[in-house]
Amino acid sequence: MNGKRVEMKRIAALTSGGDASGMNAAIRAVVRTGLDRGWEVFGVRQGYAGLIAGDFVSLGVRDVGGVIQRGGTMLGSSRCPEFKNEESREKALDQLRRRAISGLVVIGGNGSQAGSHALWQMGFPVVGVASTIDNDLYGSEITIGVDTALNIALEAIDRLKVTASSHQRAFLVETMGRDCGYLALMAGIAGGAEAVVIPEVETDPEFLASELRLAYDRGKAHAIVVVAEGAKYNAEELARYFKEHRARLGFDLRVTTLGHVQRGGAPGAFDRLLATRLAAAATERLARGEYGVLVGLLDGKIAATPLDEVVANRKTLDPGLLELAGILAK
Ligand code: ADP
Ligand code: F6P
């Protein structure tokens, strides 16, 4: 949060990394709160790739009309590995300076905020907005897109339970989340799964088999296992293991991989409001000269965490929640 206070006249916003439902609400709020402060606001297309290439668009109040209810990002997003090179970031800064833009809002997850931290270290006023379905970003207890992605996972789990019960079957439902188990764990608890497999805790397939057998012994008509994509044994590997040992284990596991379906939903009320509040807080921080921070939700309140801290820390999952999932599965 150090650095010289700059008078903001023109700012830009971009969305980066995996898209998250609510990003449009965030863009809309940056634009409208920025304009309200008398600034000019620009959008950068395709994340850091557009920043390097100089793909800017001027945004007025009407340009962000009718987007709050739409998933995805109206500005587009990208994975842009070259942004990790200082030379590329110099090009990006040059594009900003050429347009006399003096502040940047970066709406994105872990990687994107590593990028905004790198820009901040090079002296440019940046504020990050916590946005990723993975919920793995230090500095925000919940990030934009998580709630909508969870609701999509729940809809799938509820439907799978219906058919699983009819056939007394066991299903594996794989959620996204990269190397974080949050989505799987929360979907497992809220969906009433019989087991949850996450990267943070190694689950042996034999142990899983015994848990599922016990569930059937307790009179359950189905078994739903929610598996995070980043787990040591992901859904595909678990299914292969159960198939190979079917005779001994007594059943196999059918797989539903939710994948990108979780990212494509229309944002629910929670994500629209979270995105709007965080983005409005981001322009406020720029106005106050509080740069080099990530705005997120902490203890239910909007809070800013220095990007230095954000990149130096890993967000951890509450182990008590996994224990709770196990108890509730009984
Ligand atoms: P997310 O922001 O959703 O976690 P990624 O991890 O793919 O998504 O990161 C998005 C982009 O952020 C990357 O494609 C890259 O352009 C940029 N980025 C990631 N890590 C760094 C880093 N260490 N330094 C600079 N830029 C980075
Ligand atoms: O970070 C969001 C995320 O959806 C992860 O959960 C997932 O591992 C990854 O992005 C998928 O990336 P891509 O859309 O590039 O395939």
Notes on the structure:
The protein is an alpha/beta fold. It folds into 2 domains: 10-145 and 267-312, Rossmann fold; 147-263, Rossmann fold. The chain is built from 12 helices and 11 strands. The protein has helices at residues 23-36, 47-53, 86-98, 110-121, 146-167, 182-191, 205-217, 235-244, 246-249, 269-288, 307-312, 319-328, and strands spanning 10-15, 40-44, 56-58, 103-108, 126-130, 170-175, 195-197, 223-228, 253-257, 293-298, 301-306. The strands form 2 sheets. The protein has a 7-stranded mixed β-sheet, with helices on both faces. Helix 4 (110-121) links the parallel strand 4 (103-108) and strand 5. The protein is elongated, with a radius of gyration of 22 Å. The chain starts with 9 loop residues before the first strand and ends with a helix. The relative contact order is 0.18. Bound molecules: adenosine-5'-diphosphate and 6-O-phosphono-beta-D-fructofuranose. 6-O-phosphono-beta-D-fructofuranose binds at residues 17-18, 79, 109, 132-134, 176-178, 229, 263.
